Amino acid sequence: MDIINYRRSVRSFTDQVIEPEKIEQLLRAGMQAPSARNQQPWHFLVVQNREQLLKIYETSPYARMFTEATAAIIVLMDKTNLKNELMAPQDLSAATLNILLRATELGIGSCWCGVFPNSERMASLKVLIKAPDQYEVFSLIALGYPQDADAFRFVDRFDPTKISYEEF
Amino acid sequence: MDIINYRRSVRSFTDQVIEPEKIEQLLRAGMQAPSARNQQPWHFLVVQNREQLLKIYETSPYARMFTEATAAIIVLMDKTNLKNELMAPQDLSAATLNILLRATELGIGSCWCGVFPNSERMASLKVLIKAPDQYEVFSLIALGYPQDADAFRFVDRFDPTKISYEEF
Q: Cβ contact (<8 Å) for A163 and B46?
């Protein structure tokens, strides 16, 4: 399966709960992401409790998909032992994408909701999940088995005008 | 092939030139990345000219891999028509990672060199490649066929202490 081509944002989910071993596979994929000087600045909070998922939505009204998601992975920055703080958001983006791609492979729908660098969103979510001071919320990933049978169809986004060769 | 597990930073390359159709596959993968409000804020400059690759190294002395790389993809932010400027660096990180993952699948070694948000590096590279004002250099990807036969071996980065379930 071409996970790069078939990954798409999925926002509508069935009630089927994601199996613990699949959740672990998603987290393992996140931790295989590249990071600046291999600093691995991540921490992952897995939420499957329905009440808490609804509270994520209440804190993040743009994130309606959490009313249907059966799980969330909250990707956090761990600020202890950073070797290259400026690059940490890029490392965390890579970890987030690896999780989306593995989810696609496992037939799990996913949607990346940006949080960082919006300090209001970061703060309200940090309070909700009672994260210790060393962490900052970077992104939210909504997860669940897709409602739509064609959730993973390929939509070609190739645009040759976005390429230059050798020089501008 | 499990591209998530076998992608690694590769910094030592053979002289074998990367075929144009493989370069296009890498660019297609970059453009399949998720982006905030689907803004697709990217532009890609492909460099295969040896002299220019060496100049990238001269501008970026931390990037010694460009002395051996047979190609570079320079990932740029196109600042026109951004719908969510704050999230654009995350979109560009996703595009960069998709290129690394597709490269792994094609047997091509790759290394992500962060440029943004270091304004000095961004400025000197922008001058080098003569990028019009609307663009900013986001990252450099060194590419080439790996020197080492085991360049793609799996190194398990799983760390269960980086996971929390339901609450901190």
A: yes
In the prediction, which pLDDT does A39 show? Answer: 98
Could you tell me which residues are beta bridge partners of residue A109? A144
Is A29's CB within 8 Å of B4's CB?
yes
pTM of the model: 0.98
**What's the CATH number where B133 sits?**
3.40.109.10
**B157 in a structural domain:** no
Q: What is the pLDDT of residue A60?
A: 87
A97 closest CB neighbour out of B97, B162, B164: B97
pLDDT digits (tens, 9 = 90+) for A85-143: 999 999 999 999 999 999 999 999 999 999 999 999 999 999 999 999 999 999 999 99
Domain membership of residue B142 (yes or no) is yes
CB-based contact B78:B41 (threshold 8 Å): yes
Measured between beta carbons, which residues in chain A are less than 8 angstroms from residue B97?
A: 33-34, 93-94, 97-98
- Asked if ipTM goes beyond 0.95, one says yes
Q: Which residues pair with A111 in a beta bridge?
A: A142
The count of domains in chain A is 1
Strand partners, B140: B74, B113
User: Does the residue A142 lie in any domain?
Assistant: yes
Residues B37-48, mean pLDDT to the nearest whole number: 98
Q: How confident is the model at residue A62 (pLDDT cuts 50, 70, 90)?
A: confident
Domain that holds residue A115: 9-147
- Name the residue of chain A whose CA is nearest to B45's CA: A164
Residue A4 lies inside a defined structural domain of this protein: no
Average pLDDT rounded to a whole number, residues B46-65: 94
* Nearest-Cα residue of chain A relative to residue B113: A36
Paired tokens of A22: 């699949």
DSSP string, A46-105: EE--HHHHHHHHHH-TT-GGGGT-SEEEEEEEE-TT-S-GGGHHHHHHHHHHHHHHHHHH
Whether the pLDDT of residue A1 is over 90: the answer is: no
First to last CA, chain A: 35
